[in-house]
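Friendly challenge for the regulars: who can give me the structure tokens for this chain first? No prize, just bragging rights.
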Amino acid sequence: MEDPDQTPPAQSLGTESGSTPLPPRKLRPPGEENPESESEDPNAEGGHLYSADGHDLGEAHEVLIDERTGERMFIVGEGEAVHAAEKPPATKEKLSAVLMAVVIHLVIIVALASWYISSPPPPPPQISVSSIANNSESSMENQTMKKVTQRSASTVSSSQPVVSSTAFSNFAVPDTFDANTNLTMVAMSDSDAGFGMSMSGFGDVSNMGAIPAGMQSRCSMSQRMKRLRESGGEDRAEKAVREGLEFITTKQNKDGSFGEEFHAAMTGLALLAYLGHCETPESPKFGDSVVNGALFLMDRALKNDGKLTNGKGGHHEAYEHAIATYALSELYTMTKESGKEIPRLESVLKKSVGIVVDAQTKTGGWPYGFKAEGAEDMSVSGWMIQSLKAAHNTGRNFSGVERALDLATEKYLPAIQDSEGAFKYNPDNAKGKPTLTGAAMLAMQIWKGKDTPQYNKALAYLVKAYANPSPGGNFYAPYYNTQAFFMHEGKEWENYNKIFQPRLLDAQNEDGSWLSKGVGGQGGADAQLMNTAWAILMLEVYYRYLPTTDKVSGLEKR
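First reply, four minutes later:
Bragging rights claimed.
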């Protein structure tokens, strides 16, 4: 073991070409002052050494004093020492390095700029679905859903809310649905900015072919106003519809539904009111409401074996299912040709439409419930017929739809008309009711039966019963009557519209609603919302052209 106090023995030192052995010398640690020199050696800069010819010799580990000459030497490695020498100037090398770095950075910047400019824009958000297929077409299981944040009615959010869900069957809702795709707005007239506007990619004049022919008039301000004026409507009707839609939007719940009690029915009516003004999932003003309402109904179908109800038993179930099926069918029709159809909506409709078909009795009507047994009811049958015609207009050829409509209009309706032309609530009643006659007339108009003896008798009865039409305290009958007279046209429509429309417009509340909360009649806690939706649909009749009609080109029976 070495003595730490003993001076290390002298070592052989030299250059690469060899050198003469040096006599013993004294070692000093780096940094220790040399008593024989008053200034620091410039060679010791930064702890590195340089040879006389300018080569970097690395870091100095120890300082060695040559006792013969008194010169300082540096040990840079085991057994190797060199004389101190001045460091050569590095100005040229530094300048070259800086220039090279600048050139390299410029090349990188130019390359990145060229790549950015030449890269194609990212593809638009697509509707996609993620599911694990199940062999059973009707298999429906629970799933979780993420709702979009509600935008205010007066502004358009710059964010892109996404609706997502996870499903475990081949009957599922969208995995991703971008509610803000392509919100470029077309030029509008009459200060319509922000209301019912057509977006590029859906329904504007450059892509009107994406909207079924029978629905195109609802999708631009100029067309709406044109049809409104041609059919005897007042200009203020358009403003009333907008304010009504804003009121309805305030009644949407966090889960996407509308109303307080009959959520499926109220959501269906709200969607019909939105769609009647061409407020689709891409609407900058009401798009979130439409998307969330549709997803709520689809979720109800998934969790309720295809039934679109609030999940509670009762007579209301048949109404709720029919209204919601009607709304989803119209939504499907309006989106399928745009290239932005909602994934799995067709599967939902196949199930819900099938329930309507299966619930029809052998005599052609529909009772309360879904078992095709019991006394038929013209009130619920009217909604079932509308839902089937809307399903027919999707063009998907859902099984049994045409047969069910034929049976309803050719067998059931003639059987429940009384001698005066009114239609009965159920076959056992002795007399018909004016409130149901409009529903039966509309059913004949939208499928088969117009200009038949039964139809003409019903028209004569309705004209007499509503010679002085008024909205009243419940809009159930006016909802049907307004459509029936409009579809019939002629002097009957002109006389009805001249009296009824201004009264309906004057009855609107300041908040955009109609009637008051807690009014009597159908709807219970949802009566005001229900009647407001009906009022909007009545005022949209001028340009809406219900998808349940054959009034215009493009809605012929397929």
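The mean pLDDT is 74. Residues 235-544 form a domain with the Glycosyltransferase fold (CATH 1.50.10.20). Your move, everyone else.
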